[in-house]
Amino acid sequence: MNILHQPSTSLISHLECPKCGRTYLHQELHTVCENTNCQSSLFARYNLSPGVFKKESLRANPNSMWRYSPVLPIEKVEYMISLGEGFTPILPLQNLDGLEENRVYWKDESGNPTGSFKSRGQSTAISKALELGVKAACIPSAGNAAGALAAYCAKAGIKAHVFMPKETPQLFKDECVLYGANLTEVDGNIKDCSKLASEEGEKNGWFPVFTLKEPYRLEGKKTMGYEIAEQMDWILPDVILYPTGGGTGLLGIWKAFDEMETLGWIGSERPRMVSVQATSCDGITQAFHQHQTESEYVDKGFTIANGLRVPKPYADEYILKVLRESQGTAITINDAEMETGMKEIAKKEGLLVCPEGAALWQAFKKLKEKSWIKPGEKVLLMNTGSGYKYLENIEIN
Ligand SMILES: *Cc1c(COP(=O)(O)O)cnc(C)c1O
Ligand SMILES: [Zn+2]
């Protein structure tokens, strides 16, 4: 990579509500659709057509997610807040028992700044916020999103206010404080944190960087979809397994596929998308199998996979739509299985992964056993982060 290489300009044209079609200026700060009947997440739209951004041009671009800057929302490079996020490796899993008959790949997000793929989303969200004049931001989070927000805000000179459940493992809280964020511990779950963060944010004028209520975290996370295509030589896997919390990554990857098709980079084939949830927080899984278009609020208590403890994702409708359109499915994994998975992967593959990622390995084995995944199929497990921050809840043996 040439560090002097200037990323090219953004092709962003506007923000759009996918539900009512209302459009919004990307030169203004927005959260969700202002139509009270809809209040949907807003999606960034770009001026895309074959030829406007050539995949051959990627070779000269930075080895970070900013190699895709024409399809990212930042218009002035001086506002780009980057800590080197993205362009993470795809590794073949080779030694685990149960890999026979399939090629299984691991996209490993653990090397990202702050140890998870949350850095991708916060990099675009905080860059755009800075470009639009934000001085202070707030977020409710049970883990990685808060740390990532705090780090990018530190770099941007924006004051971060994070609201986290008391029972969040200590390391997730400590990193926020070290990055200079103002931490509020809440006696309750993520929903209680959201309520308090909204109230305090509104009172104090802090910009809310909430999952899928802020339009640009999705844009950072979608770069995972671009990378999967580029790193797999433009032939997408047959199946992608994703650990669903708020669903940003799942929706982002799907959005990237559509954008790449419009750019002429890939065809119309799509992987089957699988949502993996914790057993204690399985609203999407239930809704999918009961053929509902929205999920119920489900929170049956603690899980070691704090990234999956999102009782009713704000964008649940869109998550369910992607699972159906892609002919995917939804499955749950319990904490004991996640812990076993972490240990298997560490011992056989040399990777200390987060419980959310370990859940994917267990889900793969179950779907294989049910023949939902067939011999010969190419499978990608979207490992969202490192395991190092989670160890206080893991029995070491
Ligand atoms: C936040 C998080 C998730 C869930 O991500 P969404 O995009 O909100 O679905 C999964 N794994 C880890 C490690 C996380 O931090
Ligand atoms: Zn709308």
Structure description:
This protein has 397 residues and is an alpha/beta fold. It has three domains: 12-79; 90-115 and 216-393, 3-Layer(aba) Sandwich (Rossmann fold), CATH 3.40.50.1100; 118-208, Rossmann fold (3-Layer(aba) Sandwich), CATH 3.40.50.1100. Helix content is 32%, strand content 16%. It is built from ten helices and 13 strands. Helix 1 packs across helix 5 (217-231), helix 5 (217-231) crosses helix 6 and helix 9 (335-349) packs across helix 10. Bound molecules: pyridoxal-5'-phosphate and zinc ion. Zinc ion is lined by residues 17, 19-20, 22, 33, 35, 38, 40. Residues 81-385 form the Tryptophan synthase beta chain-like PALP domain. Its cofactor is pyridoxal 5'-phosphate.
Short description:
Residues 81-385 form the Tryptophan synthase beta chain-like PALP domain. This protein has helices at residues 118-131, 144-156, 170-178, 190-204, 217-231, 248-262, 283-289, 316-325, 335-349, 355-369, and strands spanning 12-16, 23-24, 43-46, 90-92, 103-108, 136-140, 159-165, 182-186, 207-208, 239-243, 272-278, 329-333, 378-383.
Characteristics:
single chain, 397 residues, alpha/beta, Rossmann fold, 3 domains, 6-stranded mixed beta sheet, 16% strand, globular, binds zinc ion
Form type: globular
> What is the CATH architecture term of the largest domain?
3-Layer(aba) Sandwich
Ends distance? 41 Å
The CATH class of the largest domain turns out to be: Alpha Beta
Number of domains as seen in the coordinates: 3
Q: Whole-number radius of gyration?
A: 20 Å
| Strand and helix order | EEEEEHEHEHEHEHEHEHHEHHE
Major sheet: order of its strands? 4-5-13-10-11-12
Helical residue percent? 25-40%
What is the percentage of strand-forming residues? 15-25%
What is the CATH topology descriptor of the largest domain?
Rossmann fold
Pfam families: PALP (PF00291)
Keywords: Lyase, Pyridoxal phosphate
EC number: 4.2.3.1
Organism: Litoribacter ruber
